[in-house]
Structure formats: structure tokens, C-alpha cells
Write a structure and sequence with these properties.
Helix content of chain B: 40-55%
Largest sheet of chain A: 5 strands, mixed
Oligomer: heterodimer
Order of helices and strands of chain A: HEEHEEEEHE
Strand content of chain A: 25-35%
Strand order of the largest sheet of chain A: 1-2-5-4-3
Number of strands of chain B: 8
Structural class of chain B: mainly alpha
Radius of gyration of chain A: 19 Å
Distance between the termini of chain B: 67 Å
Number of helices of chain A: 3
Number of helices of chain B: 19
Structural class of chain A: alpha/beta
Chain lengths: 170, 413
């Protein structure tokens, strides 16, 4: 379990409320990681603030990944995990958007690590990242026209001919 | 002197001067099937003579859809997918995943099980580093060390085989502990390895560590400074070689690593030589940890514990399954994933062979994860490769790549 230093969490919470007001919401500690949601147009500003702040110093982007909730109003999400070595604190930041053409601002200006992670999120979920230097598919072929990690894309095609049991005398 | 340009033009045609400034680049494909690329990925190098000017990377269309498959499988059946990520140290991947599920289910493990896990994970780390370091030797032209060390990797695989029956894609771990207890022969083999490996490792180091050719080929090659490495998301030996003492085992201990006494080796330059020495030193530290774990386990009274006692989650012992109806039912229910997990979000990470290996699991209360994302260290730091080799020679790029220990299975998910 990660150690949660309540003093730092309190400082973090106060600073976020001061700078981002109501744009930061649903602040809670899930298991061992403080988690909150931010509106998507302020995500880069938030990441830069957390990165530059002398007291917090969240300089390590641990992961970035896409999410898909087809039944929700806010269908698409991006989840960032940051780690502050100075305070040994991990946080989780979530941001959501709706619509068929999801787009988030790119974090590559702050973390170079975000480059391929954002390409992966684009490849799997079709989430676009504005101002990304090279937003193209990374693990799949460029000419496919679907996004395989979306919930509405099936794991495999159930009507495939080679799955026909007649072929095997059953 | 006033008419210097005019004077020069008497001797040199201005068109020739322009021609000299014009650079002619050559495109060179390094990979996807080059023996030194360590996997199916391609680097399209733009060469300015012998020097690399620009690199375009593709990591190959090897998408195996692990995350998608994981969303359709019960927690138990996700384990085999993880073996295939960093296949040089698969037990670490497996046990990291089991710890994630245990964290979700709030399961506490007995100390003996945690120490057993540490022994296996450190053996896996040794085998991972051992391959990487010996391959650095091969890529610099020294095959001897590779052949010499592979015998020891074989011994580690024999230990795995003795514990669970398999070698590369190990299936020894379970949620809540192990499938079975370590056999007596397994302990004999571990102790034999502990006794013999230091001799071989020392000899290997004496072959390369102060070897003038090796030093010339690696010192100052493919360097990356600490700030840049952090920004690129480096972790593990590659980050430590750059001088940042970040180790998940120390900063966020798991599986009782806090009970052990070991050092974090740190480099200064972040070059190929530092990455080599950091990995080498880590193998010594791993041996230290295994030694301590064995001592701790031997002091314990009960030598039979290898699982946590949570019948609804942890697979019952095989003898019980064969002779007890209730155990059979539990076995069936657990294997078929009929036990729902609680709702929640978990991020758990372990110190893998290449750095922080993380699992982000979102559970909606069903029998399968709603979303599972793997933080694969190779995928994250390999994107720094073009910057690390810019301006260096082709032969240096080969060594930089092998010292980064990029495993193709971990690029994919």
C-alpha cells in the first residue's frame, strides 16, 4: 500500500481549490491514492501547476490511459497517475468528455513520457489529443477504421467461418 | 585583406563551396529483423555519414490485445497474459498482478508467503539483469560472457521448474500465495545457486568491468541526464543509472520488502556503462535479499504455509479438492470466476526487471475487470531512444538499445 501523508493531501487539496475552484471536483482518497476530477480544458494547466509547484513537485507521470463508459453522459475519459518523489505521494487525475469525437489537450508539453501514452489512448479509444506532435496509431495498423478498446467493439467476430463446428465433425 | 573574398574566389569556385555545405543523408533501416534490435521493432535512421542524425521509430504491429482480453476474463485467468509481457522475468509480472487483486480484495498474506514471493521475484530479477548484461557484452563483440552466464540462467529456470513445473511462462503464483509449497529439492537448488552464482558473476565482471575495449565502447555512449530521464518516465535501473535513487521496493514497499536490508545502486552519467554497472550491482543486492529471506524463513516454525487462509478467494489445496466436496465446489467457483470482486479502483506497482511495472484496475463489481491498464516500463522509456542516440554512431546505437533492455513483449499490451 502506498503511504498517504495527510498533511500533504490537505495542502494539495487547498492549493487546487484556490487555483482551480469548482473545476476540480469529487476529491476523495480511493484505497490509497487521492483522486479527483478536472474539467478537460484545464487539464494541461493543472498538470503544469502540479509539476512546477515547489511544495508538491509532481514530476513523474506514471501512467496515462483512456477509458470508455458507453452508458454514461461523459463517455470518454483520460486517467493520469502522477508521482511526487519529494513527498512520495501518488495522485490520480481523471477528466471526462462526451460525444463521438472526444478530444483532450495534450500533456506532451510538460511530460515527454505522455507522447506514446497519448498515441496509445488514441489508437485504442479514438481519443484525440490536440497539439500532440505526432498523433497516429502506435500498436495497430494505420488504415484500420475502428478503435479496439471501445466497449462497443467486440473481442472477436462471433460469426467467423472458421469457428463453424461443422468443420470439425461436431 | 579587404578583397579577401575576391581573392578566394580566384582559387575556389563558389559553386563548390555551396556543394560542400550540402549534406547528403542516407536512410538506413535498423530492424525489424536485425539481430541487434532485440525484437520486432524498426528504427529508420537518417545517417549523416557514420553519425545518426534522426530516428523514426515504429514498434511493430504486434498488438496482442492483452487489455481487451483481460476485460473478458475472470481475475484468475489474466495471469497467463502477463507472463508474456516481460518474458525475461515473468514471475514478477504475475506476482505484481496477484498483489493487485489481493489489494482489491483486502487480503493479508502470512509473512512466509511474502518471503517466498521475494525469493522468486529476486531470482527473476537476477535472470533478467543477467540476460541484459550478457547481451551488452555480445553487442560489443564479446560472446564469451553470454555463453558463460546462460548456464546460470538455466539454473534459475530449473528452480522455477522445481517449484511449479514450467520454466519461461511460470504459473507458480496464485492470488493469495502459491500453488504448492517449495519442495526440498527446490531449496537445495536455490542454496546451490546462491553459493555458485557469486563466483560466476565475479568472473563475468572481471571479464568486462575493467576491460579497456568494453569501457571505450560504453562510457559516454547513449547518455541521458536525470531530469530528462524523469521527464521521459524512466524507472528502474535506467533511471538509477542517471543518478535518481528511485526504487519501488524502497519507496513504496510491497510484499514485506521493508524487512530487508539492501542498497540501491546509483550511477552518475546515465550512459551505457552506468546502466551495465547498476544492473550488475543489483544482482549482488538481489543475492543479499534472497540470503536474508532464506534465513528468515528457516527461523519460522511452520514450514507448511504457502497460501493465505481465505477459502472463498484462494484456491484450496489439491489433496482437499480430490477428497472434499466443499473444496471441489470452491475450486470450481474460483476457477470459473464466479466470485464477484468488490467495486473499486486500484493502482499497484512492483519493481520489475526494467522499472516500475504498474497495474491500474477498475472493477465495476463484476467477475472481470471493467478496465485494466498495464504500465509497461519498456513502452514508456523506449520513446527516448532517438534522443539518446542522436549524433552518435550506429554501433553506439546498438549498445544503447541493449543497455536499455527493451523487451518487445513489454512494448505491447
Amino acid at each position: 500500500m502506498f503511504v498517504v501523508n495527510n498533511n500533504i493531501v490537505e495542502i494539495l487539496k487547498n492549493k487546487l481549490q484556490e487555483h482551480f475552484g469548482s473545476d476540480v471536483s469529487s476529491f476523495e482518497i480511493i484505497k490509497d491514492i487521492p483522486t479527483f476530477t478536472i474539467t478537460k480544458n484545464r487539464i494541461v494547466e493543472l498538470l503544469r501547476f502540479l509539476h512546477k509547484d515547489k511544495e508538491l513537485q509532481f514530476q513523474f507521470l506514471t501512467t496515462l490511459c483512456g477509458m470508455h463508459f458507453p452508458d454514461s453522459d461523459q463517455q470518454f475519459g483520460v486517467v493520469y497517475h502522477l508521482h511526487s518523489f519529494k513527498n512520495n505521494l501518488r495522485i490520480r487525475i481523471k477528466s471526462f468528455t462526451s460525444g463521438n469525437n472526444p478530444e483532450f489537450p495534450s500533456a506532451t508539453g510538460i511530460f515527454k513520457a505522455a507522447n506514446w501514452m497519448e498515441r496509445e489512448a488514441y489508437d485504442f479509444f479514438g481519443i484525440k489529443f490536440s497539439c500532440h506532435p505526432n498523433l497516429k496509431r502506435i500498436l495497430n495498423m494505420e488504415d484500420i477504421d475502428f478503435f479496439p478498446m471501445r466497449k462497443d467493439y467486440p473481442l472477436e467476430d462471433q460469426t467467423r467461418e472458421d469457428k463453424n463446428d461443422k468443420m470439425f465433425g461436431r | 585583406m579587404e578583397n579577401l573574398e575576391e581573392d578566394i574566389s580566384k582559387y575556389i569556385d563558389p559553386a563548390d563551396i555551396a556543394h560542400e555545405e550540402h549534406k547528403e543523408f542516407i536512410t538506413l533501416n535498423l530492424g525489424p529483423t536485425h539481430p541487434a534490435t532485440h525484437g520486432v521493432f524498426q528504427n529508420i535512421l537518417t545517417m549523416d555519414g557514420e553519425f545518426i542524425d534522426h530516428t523514426e521509430q515504429t514498434i511493430g504491429y504486434i498488438h496482442r490485445a492483452f487489455e481487451k482480453i483481460a476485460e473478458h476474463r475472470p481475475f484468475y485467468q489474466i495471469t497467463p497474459l502477463l507472463d508474456r509481457m516481460n518474458y525475461c522475468s515473468s514471475p514478477i509480472n504475475n506476482m505484481g498482478w496477484h498483489m493487485t487483486v489481493e489489494k482489491l480484495l483486502d487480503i493479508q498474506l502470512p509473512k512466509r508467503v511474502e518471503y517466498l514471493r521475494i525469493i522468486v521475484m529476486e531470482l527473476a530479477r537476477i535472470s533478467d539483469h543477467l540476460i541484459c548484461n550478457s547481451v551488452i557484452g555480445v553487442d560489443s563483440g564479446a560472446l564469451t560472457g553470454f555463453v558463460y552466464l546462460f548456464e546460470k540462467r538455466e539454473e534459475i529456470y530449473e528452480i522455477y521448474e522445481e517449484i511449479c513445473g514450467t520454466r519461461l511462462t511460470t504459473n507458480m503464483g496464485r492470488v493469495g500465495g502459491f500453488e504448492r509449497n517449495f519442495s526440498d529439492l527446490a531449496w537445495v537448488k536455490i542454496k546451490k545457486f546462491l553459493k555458485e552464482f557469486p563466483v560466476v558473476l565475479k568472473e563475468f565482471e572481471s571479464l568486462l568491468l575493467r576491460n579497456r575495449i568494453f569501457m571505450n565502447r560504453t562510457i559516454g555512449v547513449g547518455p541521458i541526464e536525470a531530469n530528462k530521464a524523469l521527464n521521459y518516465g524512466f524507472a528502474g535501473p535506467n533511471l538509477r543509472a542517471a543518478g535518481v535513487d528511485y526504487d519501488v521496493r524502497v519507496m513504496n514497499p510491497y510484499s514485506s520488502y521493508e524487512d530487508f536490508d539492501f542498497d540501491i545502486p546509483v550511477g552518475t552519467q546515465g550512459d551505457t556503462y552506468d546502466r551495465f554497472t547498476v544492473r550488475g550491482e543489483e544482482m549482488w543486492q538481489s543475492l543479499r535479499i534472497i540470503q536474508q529471506a532464506i534465513e528468515k524463513i528457516e527461523k519460522m516454525d511452520d514450514k507448511t504455509i504457502f497460501q493465505a487462509d481465505y477459502p472463498s478467494v484462494v484456491l484450496p489445496k489439491k489433496e482437499k479438492v480430490y477428497n472434499n466436496m466443499e473444496a471441489l465446489i470452491y475450486h470450481f467457483k474460483i476457477v470459473m470466476g464466479e466470485i464477484d470482486a468488490p467495486k473499486g479502483e486500484i493502482y499497484h506497482c512492483v519493481e520489475g526487471g526494467n522499472g516500475e511495472l504498474g497495474y491500474y484496475l477498475v472493477s465495476d463489481g463484476g467477475r472481470t475487470p471493467y478496465r485494466l491498464h498495464f504500465r509497461r516500463p519498456c513502452f514508456i522509456y523506449y520513446q527516448a531512444f532517438p534522443e539518446m542516440i542522436k549524433g552518435s554512431m550506429l554501433s553506439d546505437a546498438i549498445l544503447t538499445m541493449s543497455s536499455m533492455n527493451v523487451i518487445a513483449g513489454e512494448l505491447d499490451a
